[in-house]
């Protein structure tokens, strides 16, 4: 029986397209016809104005999504530049202080500093103070500190005040 069904199907199969006059091939639509229809529907079925509005919205969304990270990047780049400059200054200061420390490790340099700044002398030496011609006109009040510390303050308060002034 299956063979009989196959035969029936073959007999009922449609005729080739060339044999059917009602469904004859139609010519491809001309370009003039498709362009005329594009103004009404366009790509994705939208008019030119709608496409422009959609494009503007997409561009605005992209601009807004890029603006915050870009602003953060620029701020961090400026901060990095400032920190790098500050680090360079601190490195120069550290080098200067290390050089000063190396100088002060020498006992001869420490002795010279004590003699110069603190007016120290070795036992048995006689200290001399040389007065220059312009020193004779100065009065002792000019050489004294501008303001004497208050007598009723404690020593640590006087010390703190002297440090705070500088």
Explain this structure.
The chain has helices at residues 2-12, 31-38, 48-104, 107-118, 140-143, 155-165. By secondary structure, it is an all-alpha fold. The longest helix has 57 residues, at 48-104. It is rod-shaped.
Instruction: Please indicate the percent range of residues in DSSP E strands (runs of 2 or more).
Output: under 5%
Number of helices: 6
| Mean pLDDT, all residues | 78
Q: Give the tally of β-strands.
A: 0
Largest sheet: none
What class do helices, strands and sheet pairing give? mainly alpha
List segments where confidence is low: pLDDT < 50 over at least 5 consecutive residues: none
Instruction: Give the distance, in angstroms, between the N- and C-terminal Cα atoms.
Output: 119 Å
Percent helix range:
55-70%
InterPro entries: FtsL/DivIC (IPR007060)
Protein name: Septum formation initiator family protein
Keywords: Membrane, Transmembrane, Transmembrane helix
Region (Disordered): 1-44, 130-153
List keywords for this structure.
166 residues; 62% helix; 6 helices; mainly alpha
Question: How would you summarize this macromolecular structure in one to three sentences?
Answer:
The protein has helices at 2-12, 31-38, 48-104, 107-118, 140-143, 155-165. The protein is mostly helical and 166 residues long. The chain crosses the membrane at residues 52-74.
């Amino acid at each position: 029986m299956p063979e009989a069904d196959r035969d029936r199907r073959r007999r009922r199969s449609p005729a080739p397209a060339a044999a059917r006059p009602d469904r004859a091939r139609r010519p491809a639509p001309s370009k003039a016809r498709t362009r005329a229809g594009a103004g009404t529907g366009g790509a994705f079925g939208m008019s030119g104005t709608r496409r422009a509005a959609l494009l503007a919205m997409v561009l605005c969304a992209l601009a807004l999504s890029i603006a915050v990270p870009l602003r953060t990047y620029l701020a961090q780049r400026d901060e990095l530049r400032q920190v790098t400059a500050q680090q360079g200054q601190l490195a120069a200061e550290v080098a200067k202080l290390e050089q000063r420390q190396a100088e002060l490790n020498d006992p001869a340099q420490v002795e010279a500093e004590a003699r110069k700044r603190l007016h120290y002398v070795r036992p048995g030496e006689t200290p001399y103070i040389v007065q220059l011609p312009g020193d004779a006109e100065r009065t002792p009040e000019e050489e004294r500190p501008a303001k004497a510390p208050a007598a009723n303050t404690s020593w640590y308060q006087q010390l703190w005040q002297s440090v705070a002034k500088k």
